[in-house]
Design a protein that fits this description.
Strand content: 5-15%
Order of helices and strands: EHEHHHHHEEHEEHHEHEHE
Radius of gyration: 18 Å
Number of strands: 9
Helix content: 25-40%
Shape: globular
């Protein structure tokens, strides 16, 4: 692959983080990237990002695909992911009769609806999904086998959804060990990485009220700082662009009623970042200054670094 100056450039990776209901933020980022002609050679995804990643890997890297994904997110509601049977499963879970609080039936239906390939190795765009071995705590990259099992495993919030058994091992949420698998993209040979984080619910006025809300929100807080560490560890020869999640973000990760609004906010921020890149004003961050990427200031939340020649960015 060559950039606009004829300089050899290697594979482009999209890295999609987890984030529950705020996964719709990634739709706006994808829309902006696709309309600029930035397309992935492979995708690495974790947790809720695995669901978006599987959708993208099924389809052409076009604005039409981003719009289709946005339409689906705009129609999603909490009951689609966290079914009404929560009360029954929750009681059984508390009583020690089940190892989860919520049925994964809703997630399973989403995977069946969104994904168009049965096995990961059949993905039109190569897809690598992160999950966590429940027994050992090891981070595992799933690149072969059942797509449905991999996505469900990567999205299985511990204690909320049931672990998923794959080859005799129980797996839970990839976000536990690697919510934004930038390091895995490096290991897989990426020359330039576009990170699509969802941020976290940094603008809530009150703490979540339900047990489910508290559990999911706590997980997002716990894993947020992983991204900071991962960015600092990326080698200087690898190009890195972190797309900007909206901030402040007053939406709980269990509230699916803001999909369209979050997508639009992310689209505007992402267009602004890519426009800066196209005019030579891309933010450059020295290795020693790779700090927090999500700050409580207007327009904050973006880091873009060029460690190697960036891929070609086509005009509108």
């Amino acid at each position: 692959m060559l950039d606009s100056d004829g300089v050899t450039a290697g594979p482009i990776a999209f890295v999609l983080s987890g984030g529950g209901s705020i996964g719709s933020i990634q739709v706006g980022m994808l829309h902006a990237l696709y309309e600029r002609g930035v397309r992935p050679d492979f995708i690495v995804a974790s947790s809720a990002g695995a669901l978006n990643g599987a959708f993208l890997a099924s389809r052409p890297a076009t604005v039409t695909t981003a719009r289709e994904l946005g339409r689906i997110w705009s129609e999603l509601r909490s009951r689609d992911v966290f079914p009404i049977r929560f009360s029954v499963d929750g009681l059984l879970g508390i009583a020690g009769k089940r190892n989860h609080l919520v049925s994964s039936a809703g997630l399973r239906k989403l995977v069946e609806r969104w994904v168009e390939f049965r096995e990961l190795e059949s993905a039109p765009i190569p897809l690598h999904i992160i999950a966590t071995d429940l027994l050992s705590g090891a981070e595992v990259v799933l690149s072969h086998g059942s797509t449905q099992a991999a996505v469900l495993a990567s999205s299985a919030i511990p204690g909320v959804f049931a672990p998923v058994e794959i080859d005799g091992r129980d797996f839970v949420d990839g976000g536990v060990t690697d919510n934004t698998p930038v390091g895995q993209a490096v290991a897989l040979g990426a020359s330039h990485i576009y990170v699509l984080p969802t941020g976290y619910a940094c603008g809530l006025h009150d703490s979540p009220r339900s047990a489910l809300g508290v559990a999911v929100h706590a997980v997002t807080l716990m894993i947020q700082q992983q991204l900071v560490r991962d960015i600092r560890a990326v080698p200087d020869h690898v190009g890195l662009t972190v797309m900007p999640p909206p901030c402040p973000l007053p939406v709980a990760p269990t509230d699916f009623s803001h999909g369209s609004a979050l997508t639009e906010r992310a689209l505007k921020l992402s267009r602004d970042l890519l426009a800066q890149s196209a005019t030579g004003h891309t933010h450059t961050v020295p290795p020693a200054m790779r700090a927090a990427v999500h700050l409580h200031t207007p327009g904050a939340g973006l880091i873009s670094r060029i460690g190697s020649p960036p891929p070609s960015v086509a005009p509108h």
